[in-house]
Give the backbone structure.
Amino acid sequence: MRAVMKRVLCAWVIAAGLLPLTVGAEPRPDPYDSGTDDFVDTRRSLRDRDWTQALAHLETISRQNPEVIDRSEYHNLMGYTLRHLGPDRLDKAISHYQEALRIDPTHIQAREYLGQAYLTMNRIDLAQEQLKRIEATCLSQTCEPWQSLNQAILARQGRH
């Protein structure tokens, strides 16, 4: 019983954002990486910058394997794809990034891409919030997602 209560308390503290999310954070595959998971064809299309085909792959995967929608990487790739399909899909892309982060708050790639989406909306404040969360997860400013989002923020501010 005590162990269960401890886990519940830890989960609440993490969910509330009161602790940096570093323990158990696993590295995420690059969206263009060929990988060996369910998303090989999607990543191939992303590498080719064929956003429409990537979307078709993701939709097919979710129809054939409905439980994939419970995976953070599905939502990260869906958000990434939708964001690149144009500004009219940005709200939906953000929803997917947020779902990826609800499933796995340590998904720093989804945080980076959410920050990039906020920059597209000219919401530098929200992008900076994601940058802080990435830094807390990485425990530094040296991880690639932090550097990439930081450069994008600086460029948007005209300070690159």
Remarks:
- The CA atoms of residues 79 and 93 lie 4 Å apart.
- Residues 124-138 form the longest helix (15 residues).
- The domain at 70-156 is CATH 1.25.40.10 (Serine Threonine Protein Phosphatase 5, Tetratricopeptide repeat).
- The helical segments are 2-15, 40-47, 51-64, 72-84, 90-103, 108-120, 124-138, 144-156.
